[in-house]
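seq as requested:
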Amino acid sequence: MKLDSLKKLYVEELRDLYSAEKQIVKALPKMAKAASAPELRRAFEGHLQETEKQVERLETIFENLGATSRGKTCKGMEGLLEEGEELLKEKAEPEILDAALIAAAQRVEHYEMAGYGTVRTYARLLNETEAVGLLQETLDEEGETDKKLTQLAESLINPEALAAAKK
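struct tokens:
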């Protein structure tokens, strides 16, 4: 496809995000299962439900545009999740693995926030008012997830990882 308009770029970026979200839906249960801290497990499980709603929002946007969500694989997310998979294969203390899982999850969140901020701006320029609201809702959720992960890391997970390393 020739990217000769902002609208085509917008649709391509939306497809990239859709692919990313679908990959995350598959990865989050594995991350939740690998987490040893119940608080972290619950955070991943809660974000899975949120992510499924985010996929639905993207599907609504595609429907409104009369476009298909298919045709793109998000290579960036594929790489981030592959790094996370490598973590799961490491022989790590449970507390250290939890800290590593948060680090991997936050890289994913930041990647998503960059993508959603971009497409929200495109939607605004293209006068896609409903899409702007839907994309902002997702962007807000991603930011909240990042804040929750930071709070969990700073208050519980990272101190436990430090203590485990001193054993």
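The chain has one domain: 6-165.
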